[in-house]
């Protein structure tokens, strides 16, 4: 016969050992000078980034229809301020510049570079005797004339040839008046697009 012994559960430990937990360190309040320094450093960094961005790009609003149908009245665009620091403007580039005879900033397309002979006759633009293929214009120009572009100057026209104040009206554009090369239309969102430059007569 198997015998089993009844066992009583051990009595509860009435005096459990409690380990002391080290007290958490008290947070030290930062000195006011350190807080002010951090704010100043953040502001300076923000200003520096803003300065860098604004020195590299510019933001402009198109006011007028002289670049229709390529660029429309009321669109906002970004230009590169450093595009021509190493390279020269090329035929077909769309550029922003200071008007040679006023304080206005204008946007037009480069048609002639220094040394080029420009001839406009019967609605056709010729550069050095070669007729340009210009699918970007609103309509062929109705005026006729010819020009030879001097050194350090450029010949620019609006894509809306018959409704544009440009080189055919006020003459050549000095190179040091050029502000930058148009890059992107960013507003309104429905018009977002890369600005379409047109590479003609390359080489």
Automatic annotation (TrEMBL):
Entry-linked Pfam families: Peptidase_S26
One Gene Ontology cellular component annotation held by this UniProt entry: plasma membrane
EC code: 3.4.21.89
Alphabetically ordered keywords of this record: Hydrolase, Membrane, Protease, Transmembrane, Transmembrane helix
Compartments, record wording: Cell membrane; Membrane
Signal peptide interval: none
Domain Peptidase S26: 41-187
Reactions catalysed, as given in the entry: Cleavage of hydrophobic, N-terminal signal or leader sequences from secreted and periplasmic proteins
GO BP terms, alphabetized: signal peptide processing
GO MF annotation list: serine-type endopeptidase activity; signal peptidase activity
Top class in the EC scheme: hydrolase
Listed SUPFAM superfamilies: LexA/Signal peptidase (SSF51306)
CDD domains named among the record's database cross-references: S26_SPase_I (cd06530)
Gene3D superfamilies: Umud Fragment, subunit A
Catalytic center residues: 66, 108
Sequence similarity: Belongs to the peptidase S26 family.
Name of this protein: Signal peptidase I
Species this protein is from: Candidatus Promineifilum breve
Lineage: Bacteria, Bacillati, Chloroflexota, Ardenticatenia, Candidatus Promineifilales
Name of the gene this protein is made from: lepB
């Amino acid at each position: 016969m198997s015998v089993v012994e009844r066992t009583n559960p051990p009595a509860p430990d009435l005096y459990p050992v409690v380990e002391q937990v080290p007290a958490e360190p008290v947070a030290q309040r930062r000195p006011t000078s350190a807080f002010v320094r951090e704010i100043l450093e953040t502001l300076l960094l923000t200003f520096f980034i803003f300065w860098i961005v604004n020195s590299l790009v510019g933001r402009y609003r198109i006011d007028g229809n002289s670049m229709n149908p390529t660029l429309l009245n009321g669109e906002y665009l970004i230009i590169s301020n450093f595009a021509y620091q190493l390279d020269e403007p090329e035929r077909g580039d769309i550029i922003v510049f200071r008007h040679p005879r006023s304080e206005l900033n204008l946007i037009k397309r480069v048609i002639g570079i220094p040394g080029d002979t420009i001839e406009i006759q019967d609605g056709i633009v010729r550069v050095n005797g070669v007729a340009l293929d210009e699918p970007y214009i609103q309509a062929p120009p109705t005026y006729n004339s010819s020009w030879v572009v001097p050194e350090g100057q450029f010949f620019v026209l609006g894509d809306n040839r018959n409704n544009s104040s440009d080189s055919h009206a006020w003459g050549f554009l000095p190179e040091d008046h050029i502000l930058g090369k148009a890059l992107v239309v960013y507003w309104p969102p429905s018009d977002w697009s890369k600005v379409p430059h047109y590479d003609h007569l390359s080489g």
